[in-house]
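From: lab user (bench 3)
To: helpdesk
Subject: output format question, protein + iron/sulfur cluster

Hello, I'm new to running complex predictions and I'm not sure whether the block I got back is the full result or only part of it. Here's what I submitted:
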Amino acid sequence: MAVTAREFYHLTEGVEPGKLCSGTACFASQASSKTGDGGASRIYCLGRCYEAPAVAGRSGQGVPSVRSIATEPVVLSGLLGPTRGRPALDAYRAGGGYQALQEALDAGSARVIAEIKASRLRGRGGAGFPAGAKWKSVSCAESDQKYVIANADEGDPGAYIDRLLIERDPHLLVESLAIAAVTVGAAHGYVYLRAEYPEARPILERAIAEARAAGILGESVLGSGRRFDLEVFVGEGSYLCGEETALIRSIEGKRPEPWARPPYPTQSGLFGKPTLVNNVETLANVPWIVRHGGEAFAAIGTEESTGTKAVSLNSRFARPGLYEVDFGTPLSEIVNDLGGGLADGDLLGVMCGGPLAGLVPPHLLQTPFSFEGMREIGCSVGHGGIVAFATETTIPALIAHVAEFVAFESCGKCTPCRTGSSQIAHAFARAGRGPDARSRVAMDSSELADLVNALSATSLCGHGSGFGEFLNSVSTHFSEEVVACLR
Ligand SMILES: Cc1cc2nc3c(=O)[nH]c(=O)nc-3n(C[C@H](O)[C@H](O)[C@H](O)COP(=O)(O)O)c2cc1C
Ligand code: SF4
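Helpdesk reply: Thanks, we reran it on our side. This is the complete output you should expect:
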């Protein structure tokens, strides 16, 4: 039987109202035990981790608290005022909106790229790739057509940064994409938006229409004679579509499996044309950099992690919400000062940056939240969703939850990712949730190590290799708990 693109997705029929979220933040709130998180239409994150258990089609608290303790708010400034957002064009312009686009047009491509390079801005989508190098590569590529894409798939359960940026400050994304487009020479762009965020779509489409009507988008961007227009492409439910090559194939209508690089999207991306793919938060930094200069941006944060980072805290915190911090801020400040510690119970650990990013144990909370700081402890910044777990969650149950997620979302191309993840899910589910809590995993430590090595060595994309890193990280920081349940 032919395998179609449509079969790849989990939400081709849309998001079922009333469906409980199976994401990691809802799991941390122990909501998943009430949801019986099965079924093909399983939803892995509704982006409302501050009010877990989240239910599709129902919003409890609305907008969570938003605060900045950064040297200067760079990405969340539009969400901090009394109105907690500025979705309308007038309000955005009143705060200086679209001046950076004008400045970018006046300065020209080479100057803007020089500033982005000087800022040392790194991608906020997870990989931390230098934005300036990517922009330069697309800008230098020779082609009759180029594209820019904002990755708004925000697949990491626990993250709701991009969702709030789009819903509360949509023109910031429109302006950032327009700057990117005129800089790299693209005439068309897409926002790849996850289906799980139905409220974001009309807000963003309204902003795009307003920008078009005001001559910001269209045949002549701000009267410059440069053409650029933008459209929203809504995904149909697949974590893998956040991976940039899968995302590109998804827009092309193909089965969205990652491809082996090279070719890189910067050279041969959407429809075979040079394509710039950046995360929403990465792009949200750009107008500030254009207006204040790359050096000013690089003066914030640390040597390897310049600028600020938005972090989203889940409902287990006493003060869940969206916060902006300087890179390098100790995790303890985020967890205790901003989040107020756990609302109840004792802390097992915090998972930063998605389910594959490892679990930081309480004794390592002094770690600076930066690419290099997190790398040193075998964890990662990821996209910045921070999920706290209380000790009522057992390590085997957590491993089983993450392995189930990996298995559910695996595209199946690589054997260790496809079959190893479900083997681990099955094995650890028995140890973590079985009637006999001490029942052991049918795997010994060398078999587990072999699987981790295979995941690292053979995975085509970060889904499989990230799972290997997660297992490594948990086995290092929670070795007693892991060893205790192995054969
Ligand atoms: C399995 C997988 C899922 C991903 N999901 C996302 C996502 O939801 N959003 C995102 O911005 N990047 C995601 N990424 C990273 C993208 O592939 C890509 O690196 C990113 O969009 C580039 O933008 P940046 O350089 O601005 O971070 C994912 C990567 C992998 C391997
Ligand atoms: S690592 Fe997993 S998700 Fe990524 S390409 Fe291989 S099978 Fe697909």
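A quick orientation on your result: The chain is about 40% helix and 10% strand. Let us know if anything else is unclear.
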